Amino acid sequence: MAIRIVLAEDNYLMREGISSLIEVEDSLELVASCENYDELIEAVDVHRPDVVITDIRMPPTQTNEGIRAANLIRERYPEIGVVVLSQYAEPDYAVSLFEHGSAGRAYLLKEKVADLEQLKAATEAVSHGGSVVDPDVVDVLVASQKETMLDRLTDRETEVLAEIAKGRNNAGVAEALFVSERAVEKHINSIFTKLDLSHEEQTNRRVRAVLQYLADQG
Questions:
Q1: Disulfide: which of 24, 32, 35, 131 matches 102 by Cβ 3.0-4.6 Å?
Q2: Which of these, 75, 73, 97, lies nearest to 85 by C-alpha position?
Q3: What is the C-alpha to C-alpha distance for residues 50 and 128, in angstroms, rounded to an integer?
Q4: 216 has pLDDT over 70
Q5: Which residues are within 8 A (CB) of 83 and not within 5 positions of it... i.e. 6 or more apart?
């Protein structure tokens, strides 16, 4: 049996392009096509599709209608899967989509939609309660998390971590920064805490902190 789909996209060319992709695939069936949030919710109420494919930004506000629709659909019809399409590999949007659970939800970049197999795979996954995230979005999420954690450090803590990354022990760090070893120890413990490394063995924490620093430095 074909997966029944409601499509919501305010851009005419994009909407027609996605509709054409769906219509050539026997395992997918387009039951309604919409161009704004209100039409989407009405179509879902009327057709009870297996999956909704929706743009993230639509009238009336052109902000986060796709996310709002996904959340409302989860409340009313938890069995309906939702694939959200976005032009942006934006962590906040992805987090908003998955904050109430990842089951039956997918976040794809529009630039990948021309690949029918990727769209089909995401549609099939959410129709069975699975989840899909575009790899580019995952990369941005990881980078964002890493930047946020390192931004927790003070300037002095960053200097200490930079010296550790050069292979210096506590005494070497103290000598390079003209501070006491006791001060270095305090800074290192603070670094471990701020990077959420407080429950690892001392050596392992040191290595992991350096790895995060080096990754951030590219």
A1: 131
A2: 97
A3: 9
A4: yes
A5: 51, 52, 53, 54, 105, 106, 108, 119, 122, 123, 126, 132
